[in-house]
Design brief:
Rossmann fold, five-stranded parallel sheet, 5 strands, globular
Length: about 190
């Protein structure tokens, strides 16, 4: 263990955050506007991801329902990663590739918004989720890494973190989601 290693890791993260801010500030503003539009129209924000990205989906949905920086009325948001009975039944009966698509088919309608988190853009269940959301006529946004992968071509808009490091991609994606949440709160609960 070394303090130098810690400093180096945090400095690289800070550099990635600076670079992402410089490259994608307008994308973040655009995402926030789309979140706010969906919520103003009575829609729900639906979040999904795998592994650490599943945890981020749950974390962000909670920020909207409970609160982020200020007390305000609850905003409609949910993570497609939380119902263990549904996830395991669907995985067993239809395969893991369908766990999000099946929920989208059942629950998601315009003016809802689907937001997918992926570090690679390659997860088959997220690819199917994007396809299902498109079939439902719902806007699909994605926070991606590693160049975006095949998911990039299936979504309406994406922010691709310029990194191949899973942990750093997730850290930046969570920071971006917090910024979006702050912008949405300011718009909907000034």
């Amino acid at each position: 263990m070394s303090a130098e290693r810690v400093r180096d890791t945090l400095e690289r993260l800070a550099e990635l955050l600076r670079d992402t801010g410089a490259a994608h500030a307008e994308t973040v503003v655009r995402f926030a506007a789309r979140y706010a539009e969906a919520l103003k129209a009575g829609g729900t924000l639906w979040f999904a991801g795998n592994g650490g990205s599943a945890a981020d989906a749950q974390h962000i949905a909670t920020e909207y329902v409970v609160r982020y920086a200020r007390s305000r009325k609850a905003l409609s948001a949910a993570a497609l990663t939380t119902d263990t009975s549904l996830l395991t039944a669907c995985g067993n009966d239809f395969g893991f590739d369908e766990v999000f698509a099946r929920q989208i088919e059942a629950l998601v309608r315009p003016p809802d918004l689907v937001v997918l988190h992926s570090t690679s853009g390659e997860s088959p269940n997220l690819l199917r989720a994007a396809q299902a959301a498109r079939s439902a006529g719902v806007l699909v946004l994605a926070l991606l890494g590693r160049g975006g992968g095949p998911l990039l071509a299936l979504v309406d808009d994406a922010l691709v973190v310029n990194s191949n490091d899973t942990a750093r991609i997730q850290e930046v994606q969570l920071a971006i989601e917090h910024v979006i949440c702050e912008l949405v709160e300011r718009e909907l609960a000034p």
